[in-house]
Design a protein that fits this description.
Layout (H helix, E strand, L loop, with lengths): L2 H5 L2 H23 L5 H9 L6 H59 L7 H13 L1 H18 L2 H20 L11 H30 L5 H27 L4 H14 L2 H11 L6 H6 L3 H12 L4 H11 L13 H15 L2 H14 L4 H23 L2 H4 L1 H24 L5 H15 L4 H10 L8 H23 L2 H7 L3 H20 L8 H9 L1
Helix pairs in contact: 2-7, 2-8, 2-9, 2-11, 3-5, 3-10, 4-6, 5-22, 6-7, 6-8, 6-22, 7-8, 7-10, 7-11, 8-9, 8-21, 9-10, 9-17, 9-21, 13-14, 15-21, 15-22, 15-24, 16-17, 17-20, 19-20, 19-24
């Protein structure tokens, strides 16, 4: 018997990991493509509302309906989580409380207040248009557990690839693809939500697929490659956006150029869809579906014939309670999963990734310069993600997360003071780049490593709750940033510095949370994690 058969094939593991990371690449591409089009979308969709009263009233009406529908969908998803955690009786009570509280907030803070064309309303519509994909991400992340349990990890990624293709075409041509007869902005938002569903599914299934394929000793490194792919996708689209923006003047970009930005996503999405045909399903899903011989053959390729039988027994044992109630291992694991996700967003990373060009314009850069500086942000993000990949299995998850949280907090406070004192030169630039570096070496990749590791096999689908929480937090941050950053009173008082201080405080809190609450998962098999939580 050859050494490869005895020990497993590293080349096989690496190949299927790289295909799975294309889900991460599309995640990054889809979420960052908006960066180069922010100003163009505002000019194309929102600015005309200031002078066309009838159009503004139509858009406000459709906007209120969209938000209300989104509220209903998210409420149903939250209710389903309550039932999975607490069972039918308690789940009904808790979901009822959440829904009633949500209705009160929705009615008082949204439905009644958004009735006239004001600065806040236009900023809110602009913020939602930019961040609307995140509603889809919440939906996709929420159903990710159901998708992974029923059609599988591989087919779930195929579904994500198809959604990416539909979104790219629809977002680029919202007038032609307007199947509802609503306003063009509503059609655009619909297709961005479709793309967001693809992102939400891929954001859960790509790291889950890799974690279930990877041997324990290199799992942290391989799952971190998914974050590398996310950042690489962002960097690629930053270059694509820059090339497209350089192909014409601002008038052309605002009318035509932004369409090419969204359409360009069809290329990596089609490549991903084709390559998925050649990868296997994960051994844990195969065993779950009683396809033991296929799982055994696959485990021989992954860990070798010596370790495969023992791992097969461990997986079968851990799956005896397949699809168990989510509170089987107690509530702490759910709280940790949710807070890891929420802190990853509340530190403000997606403000930097989505609004980098806008932030640089606030610093005084023109469009081309701001897009070039955005590429620099992407490059720093990529370089320091590589640092995390090569240290996460050596130093462990917790040290990287604590160092990263403290570093991000300090850099965000520095950036806020740079804006406050109007010192927007090298200090502000280095503060932003330092912040991105600390995030990339810690909370960027390592959060996904921890989320893919902490949930035992019998409640793997509970990861969907953490992923949904991450996208809800992302939505809150992305939607509120332009509302705070463009608010006249806050700008007069703090000169754009206020929001960055908020994110700085979250960075420090995130470090404290990991230090006090999160367990170390370095070197443990997914089955060992189940035994850890039982203790």
């Amino acid at each position: 018997m050859s050494q490869a058969q005895t020990q497993g094939s590293n080349s096989f593991i690496l190949t299927i990991t790289l295909v799975a990371t294309l889900g991460g690449l599309l995640f990054g591409y889809d979420t960052a493509v908006i960066n180069g089009a922010i100003e163009a979308l505002k000019v194309f969709f929102v600015t005309p509302l200031e002078s066309d009263h009838a159009l503004a009233l139509q858009v406000i009406g459709e906007y209120k309906i969209i938000i209300s529908l989104c509220f209903v969908v998210v409420s149903l998803l939250v209710s389903s989580f309550m039932f999975r955690m607490y069972g039918k009786k308690k789940g009904m009570i808790y979901s009822g409380i959440v829904i009633v509280a949500g209705i009160i907030v929705w009615y008082t803070q949204f439905w009644v207040s958004v009735n006239e064309i004001s600065e806040n309303t236009l900023n809110s519509i602009n913020g939602f248009t930019i961040s609307s994909a995140i509603i889809g991400c919440i939906i996709g992340g929420s159903i990710g557990g159901y998708v992974s349990q029923n059609i599988g990890r591989k087919r779930g990624l195929v579904l994500a690839a198809v959604l990416f293709i539909i979104s790219a075409i629809g977002s680029a041509m919202p007038e032609i693809m307007n199947i509802f007869g609503a306003g063009t902005i509503t059609s655009f938002i619909f297709y961005r939500i479709i793309g967001g569903m693809g992102v939400g599914i891929a954001s859960m299934l790509s790291p889950m697929y890799i974690a279930e394929i990877a041997p324990a000793n290199i799992r942290g490194k391989l799952v971190s490659w998914n974050q590398f792919a996310i950042i690489f996708g962002m960097l690629v689209v930053y270059f694509v956006n820059y090339i497209i923006a350089s192909s014409g003047d601002d008038g052309w970009l605002n009318e035509i150029g932004w369409r090419y930005m969204f359409a360009s996503e069809t290329i990596p999405a089609i490549i991903f869809l084709v390559l998925l045909y050649f990868v296997p399903e994960t051994p844990r899903f195969l065993i779950m579906k009683s396809r033991e011989e296929e799982a055994k053959t696959l485990l021989n390729k992954i860990v070798g014939s010596e370790k495969a039988p023992g791992l097969l027994v461990d997986i079968k044992e851990s799956l005896k309670e397949n699809n168990a109630p989510w509170l089987t291992f107690g509530g702490l694991i759910i709280v940790i999963g949710i807070l890891l996700s929420v802190f990853q967003q509340f530190v403000g990373i997606n403000v930097v990734l989505y609004y980098a060009s806008e932030i640089f314009r606030n610093m005084g850069s023109d469009t081309d310069t701001s897009l070039l500086q955005t590429i620099l942000v992407g490059a720093i993000n990529l370089i320091f993600t590589v640092l995390a990949i090569y240290t996460v299995d050596r130093f462990g998850r917790k040290p990287l997360m604590i160092i990263g949280g403290i570093g991000m907090g300090i850099c965000m406070f520095a950036l806020g003071f740079a804006f406050y004192f109007n010192q927007l030169g090298l200090v502000a630039l280095f503060a932003m780049l330092g912040y991105v570096a600390f995030f990339a070496m810690s909370w960027g990749p390592v959060t996904w490593v921890l989320l893919s590791e902490i949930f035992p096999n019998s409640i793997r689908s509970a990861m969907s709750m953490a992923v949904a929480a991450q996208w809800i937090a992302n939505m809150i941050v992305s939607w509120t940033f332009p509302m705070m950053n463009d608010n006249s009173w806050l700008t007069n008082q703090f000169n754009h510095g206020f929001t960055y201080w908020l994110y700085g405080a979250m960075g420090l809190l995130s470090a404290l949370f990991v230090w006090k609450v999160v367990p170390e998962t370095k070197g443990k098999t997914l089955e060992e994690m189940g035994r850890l939580w039982k203790k």
